[in-house]
Amino acid sequence: xxxxxxxxxxxxxxxxxKAEEKKLRxxxxxxxxxxxxxxxxxxxxxxxxxxxxxxxxAKQEVERVMRHIxxxxxxxxxxxxxxx
Length: 84
Fold this sequence. Notes:
The chain has helices at 3-14, 18-31, 41-52, 55-69, and strands at residues 38-40, 76-78. By secondary structure, it is mainly alpha-helical.
């Protein structure tokens, strides 16, 4: 992870209200179907299918999102450092 990404992640985590943190955790837990603490690309696609209704659009959006939030580049979205 680059220093800039680490700083931006820290700043973003400090800006959430308790209600936003709670909603974020609930959404994460909903998408994390296997309850392993991370969201795979496949799990994220299922979530975006609810919004986009088309698999191609959902997959395209997931690829875009993963480029920005998969900080350790392990192919998953990890829920770290947010305390409710």
